[in-house]
From TrEMBL:
InterPro entries: PepSY-ass_TM
Keyword Iron recorded: no
Membrane spanning residue stretches: 12-33, 137-160, 186-207, 332-353, 365-388, 408-427
Keywords from the UniProt entry: Membrane, Transmembrane, Transmembrane helix
Top-level taxon of the source organism: Bacteria
Name by which UniProt lists this protein: Propeptide PepSY amd peptidase M4
Annotated Pfam families: PepSY_TM
Length: 440
C-alpha cells in the first residue's frame, strides 16, 4: 500500500466512526472507576473502618438472609478493597433487585440501594448502549468498533515514521489545526500500548460474541446447563435440608486453601464460589468451585493454572480491558489513557476535515461522513430512550428508582458534559463541512 492509501485508511476510519468511538471510549473510561465512584457517592457502601474483616462472606450472607427472610439473596461479593462493605444483591418479593451492604467488622447492615448505580449505568451503556434499538445489534455495533480502532493503530505506525524517537516532540504554533495535530500524534505515541490492548481485547469480545451466537452457544467452560462446554449433572431431589452456608464455604476453602473467596451464589441449586489464587491477570471466575448443597461434595474444582490457552485468555481479557488487575493504581492508569484515547477519537476527525478545507479541495466522502455522523447521533438518541426505560425497570410501579443524591448529581453532570461535547463536536464539524460546500 502507498502512503496515501495508508493515510486514507487511517483518516476515513476515524472520520466515519470517530463520534461513536469517542462515546464508547469515554464511557469505558469512567467504567474503570465506577466502583470507586459508587463508594464516593453512596455512604452505605463505605465501611465504618478499614480494619481486616471480622466476619466472612458466608456470615454476611446469613445475616442478610435472616434479616430479610422474605427476599432471596442472589449474589454476595467480598469488599473490593479496605473501606468497602460486603455487597449482597437481593431479589425482593416484588421482583425488584437491590444492593444490601454489610459492614465487614461490625456485621451491621449499613443500608441498601437500587440495583441501578454508577457501575451498572456505565456497564450497560459502554457494552450495549442500554440495548438501543436491539440489544444484540447494539452489542455488535460496539464490538465492531474494535476493527477501525485496530486499523487506526496499525496505519499510524506506518504513517508516523520513527515514532519511537518522538515521545517528547510537540510542535506548537499559532495554527489551531497544527496544534491539534501535534497533540494527536504525541498522545498517540504515549497511548500506543493502551490502544493495542483495548483494540485486541475488543476484537476478542467480537469473536466470543460471534462464536456464542453463530457457532456453539457456549458461554462458559463449566456450568449447569447446555450453555457450558462441560455441563454439570442436574441435582437430584433432596430429602434433607441443605448444609449451612458457612459449612459449605468451609468445605470449599478446605478443597482450595489457596483461594481468596471473593463471591458466591447458588447457581441452579449448586453453590458456586469464585476467587483469586495468586494467578497473573485472571478474573475471579477463572478459579471456581461448584458444591452440592445437601452433601457438601465439591462437584467441580477449577484452577486457573489448569485451563487451556483459549479459556485462560478468555479469563484474562477482562482484567486487561478494564485495568482492574492491580487495584486502584492500574485503574487510574487506565482512566488517564482512556481520556487520551477519547480525545484522539474526536481530534482525528476534526483534523481530517480541516485539512481538506485548507487544501481547498472537495471533501472526500462528504455524504458518507454526514450519514455516518447522523446515524451515530440517532443511535445515541435511541440509547437515551433505552436508558430511560431501563432505569424505570429498576424502580417500583413504573417510577424511577431512588438513588443517593450524590449519585444522581454525578450521573446528571456526566450526561450533560457528554451531550455538550457531542453537540460542540458536531457543530464544529458541520460548520466546516458547510463552509467547504459554500467555497466550491
Amino acid at each position: 500500500m502507498t502512503a496515501k492509501q495508508w493515510f486514507n485508511w487511517h483518516s476515513l476510519t476515524g472520520v466515519w466512526t470517530g463520534l461513536l468511538l469517542f462515546v464508547i471510549c469515554w464511557s469505558g473510561t469512567f467504567a474503570t472507576l465506577s466502583y470507586e465512584l459508587d463508594w464516593l457517592t453512596n455512604p452505605a457502601i463505605r465501611a465504618s473502618s478499614s480494619q481486616t474483616p471480622q466476619l466472612s462472606l458466608a456470615e454476611a450472607y446469613q445475616i442478610v438472609s435472616e434479616a430479610r427472610p422474605q427476599d432471596r439473596v442472589a449474589f454476595a461479593s467480598a469488599p473490593l478493597a479496605p473501606g468497602f462493605n460486603y455487597d449482597l444483591v437481593i431479589e425482593t418479593q416484588a421482583g425488584q433487585w437491590r444492593h444490601l451492604y454489610v459492614d465487614p467488622v461490625s456485621g451491621v447492615i449499613a443500608g441498601d440501594s437500587s440495583y441501578l448505580n454508577i457501575q451498572r449505568f456505565f456497564r450497560d451503556f459502554h457494552r450495549v448502549l442500554f440495548g438501543a434499538v436491539n440489544r444484540t445489534l447494539a452489542s455488535y455495533l460496539v464490538f465492531l468498533l474494535a476493527i477501525p480502532l485496530l486499523i487506526s493503530v496499525i496505519s499510524a505506525l506506518y504513517l508516523y515514521r520513527c515514532w519511537w524517537q518522538k515521545f517528547f516532540t510537540l510542535n506548537w504554533s499559532r495554527q489551531r489545526r497544527a496544534n491539534v495535530a501535534s497533540l494527536h500524534k504525541l498522545a498517540g505515541i504515549w497511548s500506543l500500548w493502551f490502544s493495542l490492548v483495548i483494540a485486541l481485547t475488543s476484537v476478542w469480545y467480537l469473536y466470543e460474541a460471534f462464536r456464542v451466537d453463530a457457532i456453539d452457544g457456549k458461554v462458559s467452560l463449566v456450568g449447569q446447563g447446555s450453555y457450558a462446554v462441560q455441563p454439570l449433572p442436574p441435582l437430584s431431589g433432596a430429602i434433607t435440608e441443605p448444609l449451612p452456608l458457612t459449612e459449605l464455604v468451609a468445605r470449599a476453602q478446605q478443597a482450595r486453601p489457596d483461594l481468596q473467596i471473593t463471591s458466591l451464589w447458588f447457581d441452579s441449586g449448586y453453590l458456586q464460589v469464585h476467587g483469586q489464587a495468586g494467578h497473573l491477570l485472571v478474573r475471579d471466575r477463572a478459579n471456581k468451585l461448584y458444591l452440592a448443597p445437601y452433601t457438601g461434595e465439591v462437584v467441580h474444582n477449577q484452577n486457573a493454572s489448569d485451563l487451556s490457552l483459549y479459556w485462560r485468555w478468555s479469563d484474562t481479557a477482562d482484567p486487561l480491558h478494564f485495568g482492574d488487575f492491580a487495584g486502584l493504581t492500574s485503574k487510574l492508569i487506565w482512566f488517564v489513557f482512556g481520556l487520551i484515547l477519547s480525545f484522539m477519537a474526536l481530534s482525528g476527525s476534526y483534523m481530517y476535515v480541516k485539512r481538506q478545507q485548507s487544501k481547498r479541495q472537495p471533501l472526500a466522502y462528504r455524504r458518507t461522513l454526514i450519514l455516518a455522523v447522523a446515524g451515530t447521533v440517532l443511535m445515541l438518541l435511541a440509547s437515551i430512550w433505552a436508558g430511560y426505560q431501563a432505569a424505570l425497570s429498576y424502580g417500583v410501579a413504573g417510577q424511577l428508582p431512588a438513588l443517593p443524591v450524590a449519585t444522581t448529581l454525578f450521573l446528571g453532570a456526566w450526561l450533560v458534559l457528554t451531550v455538550a461535547i457531542i453537540a460542540y463536536w458536531c457543530f464544529k464539524l458541520f460548520s466546516v463541512i458547510g463552509y467547504e460546500r459554500r467555497s466550491f
